[in-house]
Amino acid sequence: MNAISHVAIGVRDMERSLRFYRDLLGCEARYDAMEPIGEMRSLYANPEKGARRAVHLHYGGAGGGFLVLTEMPGGTPGKAIKLDEVGVSHFSWWVDDLRAIHDRLKAAGVKILVPPIETDAAGYGERPGRKYLTCLFEDPDGIILQLDQRA
Question: Is 83 a member of any domain?
C-alpha cells in the first residue's frame, strides 16, 4: 500500500458539513452528485433509499487525499463514536500552522476537545525527544478530528 486514497464520512446535514469542511477547514469540493447504491446495497444502513449524495472534498494540493461526505435522502442514521470504540474513531491531518487553524475553529464555535498541546514524537513512531503539536476537535456531527504539526 502507498497511501490512503480517501476517508468517507456519513453526515446528517450536507450543507452544514460543507460549511465546516469546505469553508472553515479549506477543503476543495470537486465532485457533488447523487450516486446509486447499486451492487453494494447490502452494505448500506438504508438500502431502500436507492441513492446517496456524495461530495468529494480534496486537500493537500495535487495528488493529495480527499474526503467523501455522504448523506442519505431523509437522513443519515447513527451517531459518531468516541475514541477507543470499535470503528474509525478519528483521523488527523498534518498542518503547517496548527495554532492559527485552532484559533479559527474556536472563533467559529467548534467544540475543541484538546487545545494545542506538545506531544513527543515517539507517539508518531519516531525517535523520542522531538516535539509535535496536536489538537482534537469535533465536526458538526460529533466526529473527532485531529490536527498535527511538526514543531
Answer: no
Edge-to-edge strands, sheet with 90-94:
90-94, 144-150, 131-138, 112-120
Residue 22 CB contacts under 8 Å (≥ 6 apart), including other chains: 28, 29, 57
Structural domain contains residue 80: no
Do 132 and 96 share a structural domain?
Answer: yes
CATH number for the domain harbouring residue 42:
3.10.180.10
Q: How many percent of the chain have pLDDT more than 70?
A: 95
pLDDT tens per residue across span 4-16: 889 999 999 999 9
| Structural domains in the chain (count) | 2
CA 84, CA 47: separation in Å to the nearest integer?
28
Taking the C-alpha atoms of residue 57 and residue 18, their distance in angstroms, rounded to an integer, is 9
Cα 59 to Cα 55: distance, rounded to the nearest angstrom: 13
> Up-side HSE of residue 147: CA atoms within 13 Å toward CB?
25
